[in-house]
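DEPOSITED CHAIN:
***
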Amino acid sequence: MSEPSSLRADSLISILPEISTSELMRGLIPPREFETSRFENYIPDPNFPSQAAALELAKQFVAPSSRLKRKPPETNPGIYLDGGFGVGKTHILASIWHGFSGKKAFGSFLDFTSLVGYLGFQQALTQLGENKLICIDEFELDDPGDTMIMSRLLKELSQKGVRFAATSNTPPNALGAGRFAASDFKREIQGLGERFQMVSIDGDDYRHRDSETHAESMTESALQGWVVQQDKGYSDSFTDLLKHLAALHPTKYRALVSKATGVGITDFHQLQDQAQALRFVGFIDRLYEAKVPLRTSGDVPATMVFSETMKLGGYRKKYLRAISRIGALSEL
């Protein structure tokens, strides 16, 4: 039976979002999931004392003692929350943002590197330099070029008196690797990293979700039926969507999915091209932030989108994070 035209799904590839600099800056706030995150509603696991210790240190960072207040900001430029997935790092980071008085910005590492790429370094520096605090979620060290950009950006912002709070993106199966991430950060953010307060957070993933979970692939007819039941559902073939993402700057991905209440992708297949894979990671990050359900049909389940070679390569952390998020979106 053919699909009634009145129930035909919309298409993301028909959307060409335009976004101003002011809109980009206004978008640097915690994702929807963390709108209500506060120090008071972070519940430390008593089995991991480092969680309560991290919470207290984060509170002190937001409201330092009078002794610290008399010091110039650059002597205490930042706090770095280091640990695995699901231990509450982003909750604490968002709590820092909510609890801080003054102009502030919150975004992922990709948000800030994309902003620099879109605006240019000097304009990004000018815009971000108006803030007193910048929170960077999941600081990434797997791309030397992006790391150098962020290193320079943080150094120049710190000279303006900007303070920073950041989290690491240690993969879930890297036991004991949190400290390694911290040492990498201190080395790569030359000089400035040494003056960050390093805070390790241990614990189990509170979501208790297997990062290697396999989201079920639907039949195309079932997927289309699911999409048209959403208030604002979108459906595209994977090939068409990847072409569209390549034509858009990553800063526009958030606007691309801003109205979506469900996304279906047909003809889903495993990616072999690294550039396509990284763009898809950025797309999944935006869906995850907005809590937009995802369903797919095609050759492989959505969580098998990245090849084993990719998952063992230099962008391993990005791909593992994306797989975890795809699994979560497939359950919404």
Notes: Confidence is low (pLDDT under 50) at residues 1-6, 65-74, 171-176. The domain at 5-18+209-329 is CATH 3.40.50 (Rossmann fold). The chain has two domains: 5-18+209-329, 31-201.
